[in-house]
Design brief:
Two copies of one chain form a homodimer.
Chain A lengths: L24 E5 L6 E6 L2 E4 H6 L17 H5 L2 H15 L6 H4 L3 E3 L4 E3 L7 E4 L3 H12 L15 E3 L5 E3 L4 E2 L2 E4 L8 E4 L3 E2 L2 E7 L3 E2 L4 H7 E8 L2 E2 H7 L13 E3 L4 E2 H4 L3 E2 L19 E2 L2 E7 L6 E7 L7 H8 L5 E2 L4 E3 L14 H4 L7 E2 L5 E2 L7 E9 L4 E3 L3 E6 L9
Parallel strand pairs in A: 6-24, 8-17, 9-29
Antiparallel strand pairs in A: 1-2, 1-5, 2-3, 3-4, 6-7, 10-11, 12-16, 13-15, 13-24, 14-23, 15-17, 15-18, 19-20, 21-22, 21-27, 25-26, 27-28, 27-29
Enzyme class (chains A, B): hydrolase
Pathway (chains A, B): Amino-acid degradation; L-phenylalanine degradation; acetoacetate and fumarate from L-phenylalanine: step 6/6
Cofactor (chains A, B): Mg(2+); Ca(2+)
Chain lengths: 418, 418
């Protein structure tokens, strides 16, 4: 599919992350307006609440856009999702008869503050990148035992903490936690010394289910995707995670990009999961191309210094798709709700340069990464700004996500001082 | 403290779970009324929404009781919690000048349907009973390695699934899941064959926090307690839980009792945590008696047959209090919200007769339990009705929770049939 032309000039460049082909959904505010639903188009945001009030968009008898989340639109169901996208394309396409009515409802993105685009209902984080699982497993258990026996049969995941989800641009405070090195006699309570990123994609559940659903049903229930950084305190994790999994090591913050890129916008970029080393059981098998060809990268900028690219990889490197994760999530009858967020797991490619965490890039701290400034990093320093970038590359256009960024603040001197 | 006398006659018996000393909070509906907040007193429920409308209770400028959850009352804060309890005691105490105005607002409990008493924000399940952890660890790793190295230093917990919380009386459908026995060549997808209960208490967070809080602050932030049955699919759990913890094995359902027993009602029953085998780090240390002396038991009734008591134990058998769990939960900066629910972990006493799960009672299925009917159980059968009972025993009165019960429905023949 080629670039779709819009009368919004900035949307027609090959460089904009937000051409008419994309139309991602966010929540924005300005000096004059409270947080509300908007759609990115070039370097502008279409104020959906204003468009609804003006009668240009009519999705439901009740207004659904004058709220600081997209959950109400999701609740309307897939037909409404399709109708909204079709209507937005009508309004914003080159030659639209409604250009004159729509143009005043555009807000420059530069004047807007972006907020979390949804109310996150519950958050689940998976471990579905095979290279990542192999790398981490090799470090902890040796390469011969790297992959747990269940790994090729189910997408391993654990429940995370929805309250910790923040939008891109939110500073992240280095956490305290209980730590115990392998040679320490006793644990101590101290600031995390091995704070890390995890490069992930997040899938947003747009339709509730109450019982097991198939992979095809799960795919249909996904509303869209975001970039996701699962900040991880490796030293807290090492001490706490046996036997019941990560807990406080993953609860400080998880940052998502501000725009929900819809499944419809990503449709041309569908790609197959990799060849299966062991056949999946029927209820988890692919029902078509279910991953997406999305280029991903991570940059690290020390305070006041230029950014270095830490890694470049692609979402298609995953072993399990979000639809397979969601299907597995329902096998026990677990009810899923609108606004549930599923982290893909860290996306690492096969090469060293494509690893999705500092844990892997520095091989547990043994091979520090050298930045362009000459500094080295095994894990994150205070003041570091980490940014995830993502784009699906089309014919003369790209589908971008907007940056997923956060700056590390130093740990509190005394976490209990009031 | 002796029994407090009420003009509601049924509240003055030593046998009622709901004397004036208790006043637990629930949500009820009748043929004539939608779900709303109510307070149990003897065999009656005081309709708090009606009392608010009549001007007998005034907690806030806005009505807070004519909703199907107690979250709005919790949001008002601890002073309002105290004021409400004081006012309810005024209204319902023997000799109350407002008896005549209040009496018409009582609804017989027998005519009411009980609902979930709160909107569960997020759910965390702990593993803080030492006897349980030791028993399970012994079965899986032998008694010498039973307790993980971190166990005596932090209350181990994992995030559960809030969407799976149901109120007492809700039937529980036996789940399907991926299973693989130690001698199976490959996993298969089949109904769970080792479905189990876990006898727990649940603590309800009534005040939000955004950063680390002390144990004393955590104790102050707890609104009340419920009984909690963490239904567990042991065969699904065994295959999935390494390396990231329980997931689908715990996501079918978790049942809670219908009445939130307030911290204030339980105050006379505070008791110390057991002696510490290793000193806790300062931020997790007790700051007074923080467990409660609550007698607990579990009964199992096969379909159409009388119930057998499976176990009798006490909440004071826990190693960590809910306040310590909540404090630990915030160490990383994890934001906590009103309506968060914390499961205590399985409450097993030291003797065989006081174990809180069939996994322990039947020692992994090796020593089936014999019921009064002569049948045996290693795990739960379809049609079994499981009931948790709990009461703090005072001087001529008791503080009860109401039953926490559920009946096992057979697994679906084909979970994907529509």
């Amino acid at each position: 599919m080629p670039l779709m032309k819009s009368w919004v000039a900035s949307a027609n460049s090959a460089e904009t992350p937000f051409p008419l082909n994309n139309l991602p959904y966010g929540v924005f505010s300005t000096e004059d307006s409270d947080p509300r639903c908007g759609v990115a188009i070039g370097d502008m945001i279409l104020d959906c609440a204003a468009a609804e009030e003006a009668g240009l968009i009519e999705l439901s008898d009740e207004p659904v856009f004058d709220v600081p989340f997209w959950n109400e639109v999701m609740e309307l169901g897939a037909e409404a999702w399709d109708a909204l996208r079709a209507r937005l394309i009508q309004l914003l396409a080159d030659g639209s008869p409604e250009q004159a009515a729509t143009a005043p409802l555009l807000v420059p993105m530069a004047d807007a503050t972006l907020h979390l685009p949804l109310l996150v209902s519950e958050y689940t984080d998976f471990y579905a990148g095979k290279n990542h699982a192999f790398n981490v497993g090799s470090m902890f258990r040796g390469p011969e035992n790297a992959l747990p026996p269940n790994w090729l049969h189910i997408p391993i995941g654990y429940n995370g903490r929805a309250s910790s989800i923040v939008v891109s641009g939110t500073d992240v405070r280095r956490p305290w936690g209980q730590l115990k090195g392998p040679n320490d006699e006793a644990p101590r309570f101290a600031p995390c010394a091995r704070f890390d990123l995890e490069l992930e994609m997040g899938a947003i559940v747009g339709r509730a289910s109450d019982g097991p659903i198939t992979v095809a049903e799960a795919d249909a229930n996904i509303f869209g995707y975001v970039l996701l950084n699962d900040w991880s305190a490796r030293d807290i994790q090492a001490w706490e995670y046996q036997p019941l999994g990560p807990f406080q090591s993953k609860a400080t913050a998880t940052t998502i990009s501000p725009w929900i890129v819809t499944k419809a916008a990503l449709e041309p970029f569908r790609t197959n999961t990799p060849a299966r080393e062991k056949d999946l059981l029927p209820h988890l098998r692919d029902c078509g191309p279910m991953l997406y060809d999305i280029d991903l990268s991570v940059t690290l900028a020390p305070k006041g210094k230029p950014a270095t690219t830490l890694t470049r990889t692609n979402y298609s490197a995953m072993y399990y798709s979000a639809a397979q994760q969601l299907a597995h999530h329902t096998t026990s009858g677990c009810p899923m709700n609108v606004g549930d967020l599923l982290g893909s797991g860290t996306i690492s490619g096969e090469t060293k340069e494509s690893r999705g965490s500092l844990l892997e890039l520095s091989w547990g701290g043994k091979e520090p990464v050298t930045l362009d400034s000459g500094e080295t990093r095994s894990f994150l320093d205070d003041g570091d700004t980490l940014t995830l970038h993502g784009a699906a590359k089309g014919d003369g256009y790209q589908i971008g996500f907007g940056d997923c960024t956060g700056t590390i603040l130093p740990a509190l001197t005394d976490p209990y001082a009031r």
